[in-house]
Amino acid sequence: MKNIKRISPVVFGSTPLKTEKRDNWKVVMEYSEEGDGPYLVDLSHRPRVDLQDSNLATITPFGLNIPEVPGNCIFENGILANRMNGTQVSLFNLDAKNDASMPNETGYTDVTESTLCVALIGKNVFSICEKLTALDFLDSERKVPFLFQGPFSHVPCQIITLNKGKNSPGLVLTCSRGYGRDMISSILHAGEEFKLQPAGEQRFIDWINA
């Protein structure tokens, strides 16, 4: 296990200023030039699992009560639970301070290394998203956090709106790691006019704790 080197599917052209070694991942905490936002943050190293069970109502991973309705989510103590359908929920550990081990019981599948995960946070992020999908991340009838399963830049994704407030909007997106290069290129290209910049994990930590 000591010799394993985990590599993110997300590659930015920016120069890392501060990094950490965590569970065999090289995690960029800060880049040399991050600007004033909006930001694109690589969270692919954060643990993620899928849980499938015909009776999800009886299961409380990390002490969470799984949302009953597909598309609904819950975010508590750094753990994000996204109800996908009648028998499946995805679980993300998004808080670096929460070192809770991801469950390994029957029904759980670790998808961390098979998927990419990024956050789009800060002003104008939904204007950027409008260029890449028809999904309405500002749906006034839905309470955050909520999940969409649909195309983003023509790629099947899970996209979770965490905050749709004017001052601190943001979402998390995950898809198969094989789309990593094209997905990141598409997002950065769409965000050029809004000065979208890659940012380290510290930006996301500060954002969710604000």
Radius of gyration: 16 Å
Mean pLDDT across every amino acid position: 93
Number of helices: 3
CATH architecture: 2-Layer Sandwich
Describe this structure in words.
- This protein has about 210 residues and is mostly beta strands.
- The protein has one domain (about 1-210): Gyrase A, domain 2.
- The chain has helices at about 125-130, 180-190, 200-210, and strands at about 15-20, 25-30, 40, 50, 75, 80-85, 90-95, 110, 115-120, 145-150, 155-165, 170-175, 195-200.
- The strands form three sheets. The protein has a six-stranded mixed beta sheet, with helices on both faces. It has a five-stranded antiparallel beta sheet with strand order 5-6-7-4-8, with no helix packed on it.
- Strand 6 (about 80-85) and strand 7 form a beta hairpin.
- The longest helix is centred in the last third of the chain and has 11 residues, at about 180-190.
- The protein is globular, with a radius of gyration of 16 Å.
- It starts with 15 loop residues before the first strand and ends with a helix.
